[in-house]
Amino acid sequence: MSGSKSSDPAAAEAPRHAAPADEPLGLVVHSLPSPGDVVVRQRATGRIKMLLVLAVCAAPVIASYFTFYVVRPTGTAYGTLVSPLAMPALEGRTLAGAPQALRGLAGQWLLVAVDSGACAAACEKRLFMQRQLREMTGRERDRIDKLWLVVDDAPVTPALRQALEATPGMNILRLPREAVAAWLKPAPGQALEDHLYIVDPHGQWMMRQPVDADPAKVKRDIERLLRASAGWDQPGRQALIGAAAAAADPAMGPASRP
Fold first, then answer.
1. Of these four, 73, 82, 92, 254, which has the most CB atoms within 10 Å of its CB?
2. Is residue 193 scored above 70 in pLDDT?
3. More confident: 97 or 52
4. C-alpha angle 10-13-19 in degrees, rounded to nearest 5
């Protein structure tokens, strides 16, 4: 038609279908980690794994300490729990006169009796209960020692001495009464000699049993303490002493140990 602007539809659609211009392929290259960075990451990972392993291993120990020193079942204990009081640095003497440091007896649970060397009937009864309590714990008895603190110069009868020295885990030590009384405390109105005292493997006095205690109830207290400390306390001090003695003198029996 004259005067009208003509258009070519094919020409109008051409730009839409034109092939895109070729573009260069872009590549992004990441730098490789340096050997030093790899070593640092490996060390950090190794430390984390090591800390996790230590945490798992330490959990039972931490739990037992928490149970023993924090929870402390005062409502169910037969004896009286006391704030742990460390062994003093005292030097005593065995019945044979040899010097012996009190702290050298740490490392085991200790059932402690205190009395005169004359040891009247009540004293003998307490020493017998010591022996029975240790044996009543069965296979746990190697974690327990007995200690008789003789607080005067009175001689021990030969028969009693022989009987005590022949029993496993028995220790007899002479110490001044006033020095022992500064560490172990009787109940109000009672004498130092009236009780059986329990000392933990760290050398801390932590429980006092009643006067004329019931052995079955004392045994339950001891069993609770042994269970609570099972994660960190292991038998061995007497075993090590016996092994060392046997190595030095194979003919040396348990009764010959100091």
1. 92
2. yes
3. 97
4. 115
Q: 230-249, pLDDT tens digit by residue?
A: 887 766 555 444 444 444 44
Q: Yes or no: say if 199 and 83 are a contact pair by the CB < 8 Å rule.
A: no
- What residue spans define the domains of the chain? 78-236
Q: How far is the C-alpha of 27 from the C-alpha of 29, rounded, in Å?
A: 6
Answer for the pair 187, 211: CB distance below 8 angstroms, yes or no.
Answer: yes
Spatial distance between the Cα atoms of 70 and 22, rounded to a whole number of angstroms: 78
The set of residues, in sequence order, having a beta carbon less than 8 Å from that of 166 and lying 6+ positions away, is: 255
Longest alpha-carbon distance in the chain: 150
* Contacts of 1 by beta carbon, 8 Å cutoff, 6+ apart: none
- What pLDDT, on the 0 to 100 scale, is given for residue 46? 75
pTM of the model: 0.66
CA dist 239 and 96 (Å) reads: 22
Q: Which CATH number is associated with domain 78-236?
A: 3.40.30.10
3-state secondary structure 177-221: HHHHHCCCCCCCCCCHHHCEEEECCCCEEEEECCCCCCHHHHHHH
Q: Give the number of other Cβ atoms within 10 Å of residue 8's Cβ.
A: 8
- The answer to which of 22-31, 69-78, 112-121, 184-193 has the lowest mean pLDDT is 22-31
Q: Where are the beta strands (DSSP E) in 50-200?
A: 80-86, 91-93, 99-101, 109-115, 144-150, 170-174, 196-199
Let me know: does 150 contact 117? Beta carbons within 8 Å.
yes
Burial class (CB in 10 A: 0-12, 13-18, 19+), 103: middle
